[in-house]
TrEMBL record:
Organism this protein belongs to: Methanofollis aquaemaris
Pfam families, per database record: Prenyltransf
Keyword DNA repair: no
The protein's name: Di-trans,poly-cis-decaprenylcistransferase
Keywords: Transferase
Length: 196
């Protein structure tokens, strides 16, 4: 009952929302609470976010295979873009949701450079816009939420350079809507400088 009241209070005071939020979780987190990703997507939809990205950090994507049905359930309430191993699946309609399993920001940048090299682009024509057009993930998250401590991966290393970061001591399994709303409240209280 107290959590419900606190949620309502937090919701009432949210006036400036991020457009896109990235959640960074571990493979172990996903295995312990596979349904949490759908639940969190529902919260994002309820508050009116434009998009959400979930990065599942793992060196062994195959360990997440049993969680794929829970991830794919997202397509029932949103437009899901699932990157798993060497496959990309797109399905559903509505808010954009990307789920990336075991992907590295360094790998993405290396792949981006290879694509540009294959196109034989004159080096003098390479700029930020060109690089961004060749990235696998085009979202620029306003807010990155990391549950279970302060270790971040290099995922979205280019795209998140100006993102606000929010660290939670609580593990993904115990991540509640009130924690999500607290992260949004914290975001709106920050003065974003975009590197200046």
């Amino acid at each position: 009952m107290i959590h419900w009241f606190y949620e309502r209070l937090l919701l009432r005071n949210l006036t400036k929302l991020p457009q896109h939020v990235c959640f960074m979780i571990t493979g172990e987190d996903m295995i312990e609470a596979p349904g949490k990703i759908y639940e969190t997507t529902e919260w994002c939809r309820e508050v009116g976010l434009r998009g959400a990205t979930f990065h599942i950090s793992t060196d062994r994507p195959e360990e997440i295979r049993a969680c794929l049905p829970a991830i794919k359930k997202i397509r029932n309430i949103a437009s899901l873009d699932l990157h798993y191993a060497d496959t990309v699946e797109k399905a559903g309609e509505g808010m954009d949701v990307t789920v990336a399993v075991g992907m590295s920001g360094r790998e993405e940048i290396a792949a981006c450079i290879r694509k540009i090299a294959e196109e034989e682009v004159d080096p003098t024509e390479i700029d930020e816009e060109l690089i961004e057009r060749h990235l696998t993930f085009r979202c620029m998250p306003d807010l990155v939420i990391k549950t279970g401590g302060n270790y971040l991966t290099d995922f979205l290393i280019w795209q998140s350079v100006y993102s606000e970061l929010f660290f939670l001591d609580v593990n993904w399994k115990w991540f509640r809507k009130v924690d999500f709303l607290r992260a949004l409240r914290d975001y709106q209280s920050r003065a974003r400088r975009f590197g200046t």
